[in-house]
Structure formats: structure tokens, C-alpha cells
UniProtKB/TrEMBL annotation:
It is found in: Secreted, Extracellular space, Apoplast. It comes from Erythranthe guttata (Yellow monkey flower). Binds 4 Cu cations per monomer. The keyword Repeat applies. Gene3D superfamilies: Cupredoxins - blue copper proteins. The keyword Flavoprotein does not apply. This is Laccase. Residues 1-34 form the signal peptide. PANTHER family: LACCASE-5 (PTHR11709:SF431), MULTI-COPPER OXIDASE (PTHR11709).
Amino acid sequence: MESFRSNYNKLFTSFFLFSALLLVFMSSMPITNAKVHHHDFVVQATPVKRLCKTHNTITVNGMYPGPTLEVNNGDTLVVKVVNRARYNVTIHWHGVRQMRTAWADGPAFVTQCPIRPGGSYTYRFTIDRQEGTLWWHAHSSWLRATVYGALIIRPRQGDEYPFPKPHRETPLLLGEWWDANPIDVVRQATRTGAAPNISDAYTINGQPGDLYNCSAKDTIVVPIAAGETNLLRVVNSALNQELFFKVANHKLTIVGADASYVKPFTTSVLMLGPGQTTDVLITANQPPARYYIAARAYASAQGAPFDNTTTTAILQYKSAACSTTTSKCVSSKPVIPKMPAFNDTATVTAFTTSFRSPRKAPVPTKIDHNLFFTVGLGLNNCPRGARSRNCQAPNGTRFAASMNNVSFVLPSNFSLLQAHQQGVPGVFTTDFPANPPLRFDYTGNVSRSLWQPAQGTKVYRLKYGETVQLVLQGTSIFTAENHPIHLHGYDFYIIAEGFGNFNAKRDTAKFNLVDPPLRNTASVPVGGWSVIRFVADNPGVWLMHCHLDVHITWGLAMAFLVENGVGKLQTLEPPPADLPKCN
Ligand SMILES: *[C@@H]1O[C@H](CO)[C@@H](O)[C@H](O)[C@H]1NC(C)=O
Ligand SMILES: *[C@@H]1O[C@H](CO)[C@@H](O)[C@H](O)[C@H]1NC(C)=O
Ligand SMILES: *[C@@H]1O[C@H](CO)[C@@H](O)[C@H](O)[C@H]1NC(C)=O
Ligand SMILES: *[C@@H]1O[C@H](CO)[C@@H](O)[C@H](O)[C@H]1NC(C)=O
Ligand SMILES: *[C@@H]1O[C@H](CO)[C@@H](O)[C@H](O)[C@H]1NC(C)=O
Ligand SMILES: *[C@@H]1O[C@H](CO)[C@@H](O)[C@H](O)[C@H]1NC(C)=O
Ligand SMILES: *[C@@H]1O[C@H](CO)[C@@H](O)[C@H](O)[C@H]1NC(C)=O
Ligand SMILES: *[C@@H]1O[C@H](CO)[C@@H](O)[C@H](O)[C@H]1NC(C)=O
Ligand SMILES: *[C@@H]1O[C@H](CO)[C@@H](O)[C@H](O)[C@H]1NC(C)=O
Ligand SMILES: [Cu+2]
């Protein structure tokens, strides 16, 4: 009896334990069959020939652009990055929320020390409620000029797009090519203090297209069959240039941006800042022929030099393809779209203000932190005794850029996240100002005495779950310009934008708190402002910066430090064992 009871108890206990374990196991698994995708990224120099000349280009797995990653919402990515190049490198998964996995975000000296030549690091993260197009790119120095690729996130298995299933899907990565080593270009600029050389070409999926020398035969062809509707996933992966994008004679229906769906709207032209993505449907409803897909600069800074060339691919109707009338089809010139003027800000405004969330959005309304950040350029006076060859910005200065007059300096002995997590003092300070130190007419004629920013490694601290409203105010110091401001680790609602100085009394009335778009990069209008809101629900240290790499090089950045909340689900995971060290 005794033993029967004890056995029965044991049996019962183990059954109970087993069920409990099963429950724990099952509840830690998503409802649908999420997958784990393993990839190896070897960063290496590879000969790449463009514009008649071959360069030893830094690539991933010898590909330019790099491999396209395709996943479903809810899947996990495990990417082992091996650095066989001669430069430090990190990889950033642009727009991925990285909930509690800030260690996998990637910006050098912010969430990790770089992967040094010969080293490796494995990025692990899960896609959490994001669908559409994102991308990945190097986030150290200017390596992202050539180290980038698409990240396509389809709905969970069994789920569908909120629009008719397209016949075909084509990622179109817009890039920027220097007929030089991009690292030499940024090093030269850093040495001289001057603006870096402009690029020599833009590219679509790595190819400049047939308006450039030595490029015609490799022009990207995008096939389409008469009557069908296809999805184009357009990414601006250019380094320093906002771009207009058009397809000759075809309307584009926007269905998503930055891996969030939007209320569909139709346009003939897109504008994307570096970092931004736009998913569009295109229907083959024109006479069968070949049509150019084209991108060229939106250059908002008056008087600043820019690459004014045009990259093209070809939208080719199948019935116009070469199989039937071989020689004819090749010689027929594609129809070329009329692009907006380089400074057509009116078109940009009409486009960016058309975005809406598909339905009523959970925009935070009770605001804990009401922030106002100025964003713009500056000029540093040269220290006494400096050589003139190191002071080649206008009138013997050096270019700078800042947010709230702080020109951001990266640490070099610890990443900000490591310093935060391990409590290492002296790496950063937590006094990033909530407001500019000085109020002035931001978009007017700014007194020369205000042009030189202070330097610092300052973060702004947020408690877990706090809500933020942030006014991003462009300045006209040196020149006004549209800045694509990107926040790591978060999507935010863009609730308003406008020109001139933001005026709370007047402009609060314009806030869209009903269905504003959810983005990870906001194009702050030239000589104007944008207002964004988000909830600090992801602990870590998160860089916010201008996605024109020339501006981040000059210091147009800051970071939010978001504290842990209560319990495991509100706490940053421990650092991976292979996290690179700085020294
Ligand atoms: C930048 O452009 C100048 C002028 O064309 C040229 O002399 C220089 O070599 C270029 N720098 C790099 C790093 O390509
Ligand atoms: C392209 O080739 C033409 C003819 O060979 C030449 O005149 C022109 O300078 C080249 N353009 C560039 C940008 O190299
Ligand atoms: C681009 O700039 C060059 C040099 O400034 C100029 O000669 C050319 O006409 C410009 N091209 C276009 C399309 O504006
Ligand atoms: C745009 O540039 C043209 C010259 O290319 C100039 O005439 C016009 O005033 C500019 N427009 C704006 C809004 O700056
Ligand atoms: C440079 O100096 C000249 C002459 O004093 C002045 O006209 C110009 O505005 C200055 N430029 C800048 C950017 O300070
Ligand atoms: C890290 O570098 C900063 C700036 O160079 C220095 O002030 C600090 O003491 C260093 N911290 C450690 C722990 O070495
Ligand atoms: C800008 O202000 C300065 C004085 O702060 C003045 O000398 C200059 O003429 C003004 N420029 C313009 C274009 O108004
Ligand atoms: C930024 O700070 C520097 C150094 O403290 C100061 O000279 C400058 O006037 C400030 N500029 C602005 C716009 O606050
Ligand atoms: C590479 O990163 C290490 C820290 O991990 C740093 O000490 C070194 O200066 C970096 N090298 C370059 C060329 O930036
Ligand atoms: Cu910028």
C-alpha cells in the first residue's frame, strides 16, 4: 500500500511535471510554425567592375549587393558574420525592432565593439510583428556603401497580405557607387574637414544602368506580363542621397513602408531618404514595351554639390521581350520618365504627407517626455596652429553636425550598451538636453556665433514604458537640408510635419493622432520640422541619427538609453558570449 501510494504519487508528480514542462515549452513557442534561419555572412574584398573600372570592393559572400534574406513574421534569424576584410565591421538589421536583443542591433561602439579583421560574431534576433521590406547594412565607417542587402518579411505562414497577392515580387535596392574606395573617400574628408567627394553613379540592385558608360549590358531587367500586378520592394540604400523614384508611364500604389502596412494610395513618384523602404504595387496596364525604372537625386541643400546622374533599370513586358523579334526589341529604346526637378520639395511634401496607417493607430496621448531636438550642420573653427590642409571647409573651418548643439562622438574603448550594462563609468554621460540650449530663429539667418557645436557622448535616459513626443527641428546653419532621421530599436508615429519654426500653439492643431504612419526613418523637411511619438518599450541603448552617412560622420546623432522594466519580458537579454570586445 505504502509503496503503491508512493509510486502513484511519483507517477502523478512526473505526469504533472511533464505537463507543466510541455505547457512552458509550448507557450514559449509561437502559435504558428515559426522557423529559425541560419546564414553565414563572409565579409571580404571582391573584385567588382563598374563604370569601366574594377575595384576591390568589400562585399558579403562576394555579392554586391549582398544576399537577400527572406523570412516570415515571427521567424528567428541567426547570422554568423565572419570578417575576412581588412576593416572593422558590424552589421545592422535596419528597422528590426530587436525586442530585448539590443546586442544584435549592430552600430559600432553603440551596441557592440566592431568585429575585427579575422574575427566573427553571430547575430540572433526574432522578427516581432513586422511585415514588409527591411534591409541590412554595415554600420561602421562607410562600409555600408557596398555591404548591404534586402530583408523581406512576409506574413506568418497561413496569413496573407492585406492586398491581392502579387504575381511576382522584386526587391529594388537603390545604391550609390564611387569610382574609388569609399573608405578612402571618408578618410580624406575626415582629414581635410571638407565635404567628401560626391558619388559617381547611383545603382539599382548594384547596376548603374545604361545611361552610364560601360554599364548597358548589365542593366537590370524587371519582367512583367501584360495585365499582372507585381510588388516592388524599393529600398534607399544610398549612402548620402535622398532619391526620387519613378517608372515611366506607370502609376504606383503604395501599400507599405519601413515594414508597416499603410493605407494604400496611388502616386507617380516616390521619394525615399536613405534607410527608408517603400512597397508598391505596379500593374502592367500599358502598351507592351520597355519602360525605364529610374532614380535620381532629391537635393534639398541649396548650393551643395551632389551627384546629378540617373540610374535606370528596365520594366520589360514579356510580349516585348526578345524571344520573338530578337534584334528589334534590343534596339528599341525604353520609354524614359520625366523626373521631378532636383529641388522639387513640393512633390516631396505631397508624397510624405499622403502616408496613413491602415486603421486607427494606438498613438500614445499621455506624454512623459516632451522633447525638442534641433538637427543640422555646423562649422568648427580650426584650433590655433592647425594646418590649413586640415581645415578645408568654407573659410578655413571643418564641417560638423549636431543635435541640440551636441556633436556626437563615438566611444572607442567600450560600446555604450556594454558600458551601461556593466556600469562602466566615463564612457558616456546622461545629460543629453531635452531642449536646445538656446532658442533662436532656426530656419532664418543664424548668427555666425552659433555655428560651432559642442562635442559630447551624451544619451537621453528613458524609463521602461515611458512615452515620448519628439519635435525634430531642422536648422539653417550653413545650409538647410532635408535630414532622414532614423531611430534604432523602434518604430515611431510621424504625427505632423511642416516648414519654418515649430510653433506648439499653432502646430499642435495639425497633429494626426488617429492614423499617422508608423516608420523607422523620418524625412525632416528642409527648413522645417517633424513630430514623432513612441513608447519606450524596448530596453537598451538606441542610436538616433541622420541616415546621410556624411552627416553621421560629422556628429548628427545621439542615443536613447532605455532602462529595464520589471521582469524578464521587460529586461535586456544577457550579452552573447561571442560579443566582440574593444581591447
Ligand atoms: C576626390 O576628388 C578629388 C577631385 O576629383 C580627387 O583628386 C581625389 O583623389 C578624390 N578622392 C578620393 C579618395 O577618391
Ligand atoms: C563616357 O564615355 C565618353 C565617350 O567615351 C566620354 O567622353 C565620357 O567622358 C565618359 N563619361 C564618363 C562619366 O566617364
Ligand atoms: C550635372 O552637373 C554637371 C556638372 O556640374 C553639369 O555639367 C550637368 O549639366 C548636370 N546634369 C544635369 C542633368 O543636371
Ligand atoms: C530650383 O532650382 C531652379 C534652378 O535649377 C531654380 O530656378 C528654382 O528657383 C529652385 N527652386 C527652389 C524652390 O529652390
Ligand atoms: C566666408 O567668408 C566670406 C568672406 O568673408 C563670406 O562672404 C562667406 O559668407 C563666408 N562663408 C561661410 C560659410 O562662413
Ligand atoms: C574610455 O575612454 C574614455 C575616453 O577616451 C576615457 O575617459 C575613459 O576613462 C575610458 N574608460 C575606461 C574604463 O578605460
Ligand atoms: C545675416 O545676419 C548678419 C548679422 O547677423 C548680417 O550681417 C547679414 O547681412 C544677414 N544676411 C542676410 C542674408 O540677411
Ligand atoms: C553651441 O555650443 C557652443 C559651445 O558651447 C556655442 O559656442 C554655440 O553658440 C552653441 N550654439 C548653439 C546653436 O546653441
Ligand atoms: C577597430 O576596432 C578597435 C576596437 O575594437 C579599435 O581599437 C580600432 O581602432 C578600430 N580600428 C579602426 C581602423 O577603426
Ligand atoms: Cu542629415
